[in-house]
Design a protein that fits this description.
Length: about 170
């Protein structure tokens, strides 16, 4: 099912950008997962989604709440440190340095290169290409880069340099 991997390179802190992107998914009546590394990060993002604006909130839950599976399945937005698509989301916001393990269960994976700082080094473009190629090796995918420059978002297309392995 995966069709695209989107990379966002914001000028603003991710804490300001992610809630806006999640809100767009929710407004489109779609479900999403926010993948984080730890339970503590689940708690942090849970608080952020409740408080990022004073005029509205984003209905969500997190794995920190230990909800039963049938309740998780009903959540439009689910924050988790586990690597499963527990609410049958079409979108995943990956805030980890790992690839999304069940990539084929999503329509779109959203990556934030600032979370890979440990391996970004000098050439962000080559690392974005490597990440896209890693996804392309397991499924058919295209890549898009959205980079914020002087407050405006500029879009670039990325093409995988590898193709998915066929079984």
């Amino acid at each position: 099912m995966l069709s695209e991997v989107v990379f966002y390179v914001p000028e603003s802190p991710l804490e300001n950008v992610l809630p806006v992107l999640v809100e767009k998914v929710y407004a489109g009546q779609e479900r999403c997962i926010i993948h984080v590394d730890t339970l503590e990060q689940c708690t942090k993002w849970n608080a952020k989604l409740w408080t990022y604006t004073t005029i509205s909130f984003l209905p969500h839950a997190s794995s920190a709440q230990n909800l039963p599976p049938h309740r998780v399945a009903m959540q439009p937005i689910f924050i988790t440190h586990e690597r499963r698509n527990e609410n049958m989301a079409k979108f995943v916001f990956n805030l980890t340095s790992n690839l999304v393990e069940d990539a084929n269960t999503y329509q779109r994976i959203v990556e934030f290169p600032e979370y890979w700082q440990s391996w970004l080094g000098d050439s962000q473009a080559s690392h974005i290409q490597s990440r896209l190629d890693a996804y392309a090796s397991i499924c058919s995918v295209s890549g898009i880069l959205w980079k914020q420059q002087a407050g405006e978002w500029v879009r670039s297309a990325y093409t995988p340099s590898v193709t998915a392995k066929r079984a």
